[in-house]
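During the no-cost extension, the postdoctoral fellow (Dr. R.K.) reprocessed legacy sequence entries with the updated structure-token encoder. One reprocessed record is reproduced below for audit purposes.
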Amino acid sequence: MLRVENRSSIDLCEPYAAVVATRRAWNAKSAWDTTRAFGEWRAVDQDLRVFLDLTTKVMNERFDALWTEIGERPGDPDGPDMIDIFDREVRIQPIDYDWILRAAVVRDAVTAFEVYLEKVGTELGHNWNVGAEKSPGWNSMVEYFDTELGLDVKPARVTEIRRLRHILTHQRGELRTAELREKFGADPDTAWVSHQAALSAEVVTQILDDLGDVVHQADSTAWAR
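Re-encoded structure tokens follow.
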């Protein structure tokens, strides 16, 4: 099959609440012991998880159906191969579709993380001094949480994730140095994609989880203020 791997465990008959459940304890926190900013962030986080799983499942099924339909057509020994027909009619390979989908989720997840930091600071009474149409800079938010709440919101993992977001946003995933290829690339045995950031479903889900851990830590401190 053209599908590389279907990593989704979603059942379209299951309630979405079951689909978005994770091992993280912060997913079960009630609205009564969190900030408003946390509630907004958690809704976005859940949407992103459902979007990733549901879209992957639906499109994998669609790609498989198209591949099967093409294969069941009357054969022509002098005609194009199945893969060429698929390319002509579908115009995108499943592996490319999956990469675009996962890159979009990573970018939006980092944005949601940054929006949470801004909003929880505002909720605590901080004036970012940027006006309603602008957002505070990253360094300003890091400094605020460090000096006012004693929190490090840019641990090494967050720095790494934001670096990946930059590569996805401004270089469309191109890994331009050996260091970047080693950090964000695919397994060396698959050198044909080694110059593009590798985005498996597991990698994207881990990014969501890791950002969520920092949000939970920040919100627990903010709520106690």
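The mean pLDDT is 85. Residues 36-71 form the longest helix (36 residues). The remaining legacy entries will be reprocessed before the final report is submitted.
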